[in-house]
Specification:
The structure holds 2 protein chains of 2 kinds. Chain A is an all-alpha fold. Helices cover 76% and strands 3% of the residues of chain A. Helix content of chain B is 34%, strand content 24%. The interface between A and B is large, with 45 and 63 residues. Chain A: Keywords: Cell membrane, Membrane, Transmembrane, Transmembrane helix, Transport.
């Protein structure tokens, strides 16, 4: 027997193995300091993150330069470092930079939120779009728009509350000695259907002005976003993203099932509750800031995963992918359809829909659906 | 608890002096929601034994294993690991002492063998200690012991059932725990791979002195490999001890409701259970067996 042989030769087998230098971790490098600290780096994932950040940055510069008054990329960069003329400075720093920052933050929040939900539900369909968080936030916003004709700040708060309440409802309904993948997805789809019906009812109650305002909000748009939207979103991300990333290793263990991860010393239910709260907050805040921008949360983690070719939740790559995707989509919509003509949600919806179909077809070929 | 926070040799001395086994369940009542599986069950896992838990379906053997591995919190009574209530210990500390190979494990899509085995190092790692040379060495060793070193770069999805089970065992080995619990490790494997996995377990027990606890379905496998057998029925221990001492036709009938002969295994001399021919089993099969599934 194979194992008998290797065990008998004990020590020699060991040195033989290390002598051959069998690579345990494909494309992984360990960085070690003399003090006993060690970091594990997935080289491919690092490259993907850097490239996505560069893409997001490039798209941001182009997006800032795009509009009724086009500014060349070089001038945009000059203005951003404080070397532009007064006119450009106003357009760049006051009008377009906050919009782009909101786009980056919303994309990042949706990307990482989607990755969290998909990892927790162990299902690529377990994203906030499908689970009804977007619809929940929409319901909150619609209540403010239709019933109270609220200001945009009130609409934002309404959306945030709607998203949080929906997230809590899904968690409680799906909880039965722990939350499990399929139950979470099915409960989410059920909640989503109910909330969609409520949204439909609210829309029929609205007069024409409120209704058109509601529909624009529901498509997801970055138009007219200013610094007031940037700061709260930035603060939330600054707190939650590091928290989420430090729990990434535990989440990676949870991929293997509750029992295995529990046996490895992960406090499964605690980590899951913490990460779900973080994911709900991130998606609700993103939705409150830009409306339910569709499919970013669904597609960003899947695209990131295909690029890194690495198992695990791929949190950081998903975050960068979300940011790059949203800003690029916004730039495309501005370029192709003209400034502020088409909300970004339409573009991400089309891109995401095509991607989802492709995903379903390939998954079916792989025999997983 | 406070007496045990000292360094390891201290607690080792204490253990050998007090002569108490490391893992015990004291008067535990085990229940899922309202459904009670076992009441006032007490079990000791002898140190350095290969303990096998047997019993008919739904007798509570997997539930007992879940309680021993702190997956299930007893509604009454307590499970003690090294003298401490297992639920009160830090999760990672338990995970460095006691490993579990559960039945429900999911190999993530696109994961390689080396990566999966490496995940067994989690309880030894931290945010600033993610992949030490020690981790690397232990993972190599675990893969060598389970005979999967050549598969390190292969994807787990591509492997056969037997190879995959070896990978999961290697992952549990990489955890480097003196106690290892296995929940039906031979299920879904063909006979050759069943024996293969059991041989591996015996080897881990004999050559590395690990304490193994396994739930097995096959009574003959249990009798052949176990050094200590626990026979459960309806959440009660019917008998425990060395297979040679306790496996009799009478016990098998009491535990499984099956008439049989027990003869000596011609290969190993351990008890071998031969079910009676159909004609010989005139007595109606009792409820525990018909209720099983």
């Amino acid at each position: 027997m194979k194992s008998g042989k290797t065990a008998k030769t004990g020590e020699t087998a060991k040195t033989g193995e290390t002598g051959k230098a069998v690579r345990i971790l494909k494309s992984n490098r360990a960085v070690r300091s003399p003090g006993g600290l060690s970091l594990r780096l997935d080289v491919r994932a690092v490259v993907v993150v850097v490239l996505l950040l560069l893409l997001a940055l490039a798209a941001s510069v182009l997006l800032i330069g795009t509009g009724d008054f086009d500014i060349p990329a070089a001038d945009v960069l000059k203005t951003l470092v404080g070397q532009g003329n007064a006119g450009q400075e106003f357009i760049v720093n006051e009008l377009r930079l906050p919009r782009v920052l909101v786009g980056l933050l919303v994309g990042a929040a949706l990307g990482v939120g989607g990755a969290l939900f998909q990892a927790i539900s162990r299902n690529p369909l377990g994203s906030p779009d499908v689970l009804g968080l977007g619809q929940g936030a929409t319901a909150g916003a619609l209540v403010m728009i239709v019933l109270f004709s609220g200001s945009s700040a009130q609409v934002t708060v309404g959306a945030l509350v709607g998203g949080l309440v929906t997230g809590l409802a899904i968690y409680l309904l799906a909880w039965k000695r722990g939350v499990h993948g399929y139950r979470l997805v099915l409960v989410g789809i059920g909640v989503s259907a109910i909330v969609t019906a409520v949204n439909g009812y609210l829309l029929t109650r609205a007069d024409i002005v409120d209704a058109s305002r509601a529909v624009v909000w529901m498509t997801g748009s970055l138009n007219g976003r200013d610094w007031d939207q940037v700061w709260p979103l930035l603060a939330l991300c600054a707190v939650l993203v590091p928290l989420v990333l430090t729990n990434g290793r535990a989440l990676r263990m949870m991929e293997m099932g509750d029992d295995v991860s529990y046996a490895l010393g992960v406090r499964v239910e605690r980590v899951r509750a913490l990460l779900m709260v973080a994911a709900v907050l991130l998606t609700a805040a993103a939705t409150a800031a830009a409306g339910p921008v569709s499919f970013v949360a669904l597609t960003a983690p899947q695209l990131a995963r295909r690029l890194t070719r690495s198992p695990g939740p791929n949190l950081l790559p998903s975050l960068c992918m979300g940011a790059a995707l949203l800003v690029s989509a916004d730039w495309i919509s501005q370029r192709v359809f003209g400034a502020d003509q088409l909300p970004v949600g339409v573009v991400t919806g089309v891109l995401g829909g095509v991607y989802l179909l492709w995903l379903l077809v390939t998954e079916r070929k792989a025999g997983r659906i | 608890m406070s007496a045990r926070t000292g360094h390891r040799s201290g607690s080792d001395n204490q253990r050998s002096n007090s002569n108490v086994n490391r893992l015990t369940a004291e008067n535990v009542t085990l229940a899922y929601d309202q459904r009670v599986i076992a009441e006032k069950l007490s079990v000791e896992i002898p140190d350095n034994s290969f303990t096998v838990i047997v019993g008919p379906n739904a007798c509570g053997k997997s539930t007992l294993l879940r309680a021993l591995s702190r997956m299930l919190k007893p509604s009454q009574g307590r499970v003690l690991l090294d003298g401490s209530v297992i639920q009160s210990m830090p999760a990672k500390q338990v995970a460095r002492t006691l490993g579990l190979l559960p039945q429900s494990s999911i190999a993530p899509d696109g994961i390689t063998v080396g990566d999966l085995v490496g995940r067994g190092r989690y309880p030894h790692q931290g945010i600033l200690r993610q992949w030490s040379t020690e981790d690397e060495r232990v993972v190599q060793e675990s893969m060598a012991q389970t005979g999967i070193a050549e598969l390190a770069d292969r994807y787990v999805d591509e492997l056969s059932g037997g190879q995959r089970q070896r990978v999961w065992i290697a992952m549990a080995l990489a955890q480097q725990t003196p106690l290892l619990l296995l929940d039906e490790p031979t299920t879904y494997l063909d006979i050759q791979h069943q024996i293969d996995v059991l041989d591996l377990c015996a080897e881990l027990h004999e050559e590395q002195g690990r304490t193994l606890v396994a739930v097995l379905h096959d009574l003959n496998h249990a009798a052949r490999y176990a050094t200590h057998l626990i026979a459960l029925r309806d959440g009660q221990v019917i008998a425990e001890g060395a297979p040679k001492d306790i496996v009799t036709a009478d016990l098998v009938e009491r535990v499984f409701g099956l008439r049989c002969q027990v003869i000596d295994d011609p290969e190993t001399g351990t008890p071998l259970v031969v079910p009676a021919a159909r004609k010989g089993r005139t007595k109606p099969v009792d409820a525990a067996v018909t209720g099983a599934s």
